Amino acid sequence: MDNNTDTSSMQQNNSEKRSYAVVLYGATSFVGKITAHYLAEFLSNAKDKNGANVTWAIAGRDEEKLQQLQSTLTSNVDIIVANSNDAASLDQMTKQTQVIISTVGPYLKYGEPLIKSCADNGTDYVDLTGEAIFIKDMMDKYQDTATQSGARIVNSCGFDSIPSDLGVYFTQTKAEEKFGDICDVIHMRVKAAKGGLSGGTIASMATIFEEVGEDKSRRKQVANPYLLNDDKDAPSVRQDNINKPQYDSEHKRWLAPFVMASINTRIVHRTNQLLGYEYGRDFKYDEAMWMKDGVKGQLSSYAMSAGLFGFATAMMIKPSRELLSKHVLPKSGSGPSKEEQENGYFDIRLFGQTAKKETINTKVIGDKDPGYGSTSRMLAQAALCLAQDVSKKDVGGGFWTPASAMGDKLLTRLESHAGISFKVVNS
To answer: Most buried one in 104, 113, 338, 417, CB count within 10 A?
Structure first.
């Protein structure tokens, strides 16, 4: 599938003049440290297209913590001190690099100043936000600026939403090769996953629930499957939302809601728009967790659904949200151990069907903890892909998705360097 787009003559490409290919902002956060160690190891043997070493830096607001991190890395890396509350320091940072990686969340609270700086200065940007309303807000404010400056803003480059977004892209590509047609329906199912949550992830979820709990207009936004489709004629086809237990008679399994579906589905539909609706204007897509068959699977499905509903309800009410955050949920800066990250994995299945009822099944497999071990690699490779593989002549400035901006190039990187595989299962 073709994911190239013409660029405006007004866009700037200052990448040749900049000191760094990549700057990791928020490097001392939990996922930031994991990403820094991965980049240090990966880039110790990597070269750019001219055969030179790839230059990069770690950044954040606390110089002492950055120095402590720097001392643990396997390759030399520069330090940049910048603060989200200091626009001048952000501009000084973003003007020095081709791509910024941001791990500073919750993005609704802390993300806008950096997006603005990147948009103003023509600097590419990737993050791991799962906050769809944050992306919508930033698109509304900075799309025109990013388009003019040439800044490619690519949100959701972690477990949400690269496996879903590139999984659908891969499935559609293979369907087109096999049938000469695309799938008008794709169901994504999480077959298995093992990993933990960090305090940062919990903080981001709490921020979203706080927003939707206190603002009815935000709840309406979150419920819209086409929230990120910013064209005036967005599709109106009704999308399935698996928010309660269901039985999948075709695969003989119970289904439960998948907590990341609310961001992943929006990213996939945004990709469809940015690719000129190559998936079709009536394309339908949903996500769910696979449970087992029989009574055990049914009980698991109902338990998972009840747990998610109870958690969401509690997090939307201020007293219970504060109680959970203080006494129950992981604290900021905490997360799964190194061993848990290494022993984690995920197995995602996608079931596609064309209008002629031809079927194709694919899988996306990750060999590390999805939220951190795999996410850090996906995030880093997305940044390097923008810096090294995707020219601004081919993909211009604006707000993109992983699949629409990087497509096959990112697929290749993830399979080669991130422990992620995309395969056709059968058809």
So the answer is: 104
Report how far residue 111's alpha carbon sits from residue 58's, in angstroms, rounded to the nearest whole number: 17
3-state SS, one letter per residue, for 114-170 = HHHHHHHHCCEEEECCCCHHHHHHHHHHHHHHHHHHCCEEECCCECCEHHHHHHHHH
Q: What is the mean pLDDT of residues 369-390?
A: 96
The domain that holds 409 is classified in CATH as 3.40.50.720
Extract the tokens encoding 298. Answer: 């049914």
Q: Give the pTM.
A: 0.93
State the Cα–Cα distance between residues 60 and 347, nearest whole angstrom: 34
67-75 mean pLDDT: 94
Tell me what pLDDT residue 12 has.
Answer: 45
Residue 224 is assigned to a structural domain of this protein: yes
95/228 Cα distance (integer angstroms): 28
Of 369, 384, 410, the position where a domain reaches its end is 369
Place of tokens 């590509």: 173
Percent of the chain with pLDDT over 70: 93
In this structure, the number of other CB atoms found within 10 A of the CB of residue 189 comes to 21
The sheet with strand 246-248 has its strands ordered as 246-248, 253-256, 284-290, 183-194, 345-354, 359-366, 420-426
Of the ranges 9-18, 187-196, 360-369, which one carries the lowest mean pLDDT score?
9-18
| Residue 72 to residue 292: CA distance in whole angstroms | 44
Read off the pLDDT of residues 407-426 as tens digits, 9 standing for 90 and up: 999 999 999 999 999 999 97
Give how many domains the chain has, as a whole number: 2
Q: Hey, which residues does 107 pair with through a beta bridge?
A: none
Same domain, 169 and 288: yes
Question: For residue 258, is it within any domain?
Answer: yes
Structure tokens at 378: 């996906």
Token pair listed for 421: 């595989």
For 205, half-sphere exposure in the C-beta direction (CA atoms, 13 angstrom radius) is 24
Worst-scoring range by mean pLDDT, 198-212, 233-247, 257-271, 357-371? 198-212
Compute the distance between CA of residue 90 and CA of residue 94 in angstroms, rounded to an integer. Answer: 6
Residue 324 phi, psi dihedral angles, 5° rounding: -65, -45
Comparison of pLDDT for 17 and 348, the residue scoring more: 348
Residues 6+ apart with CB under 8 A from 108: 131, 133, 134, 137, 204, 207, 208, 211
Residue 285 three-state SS: strand
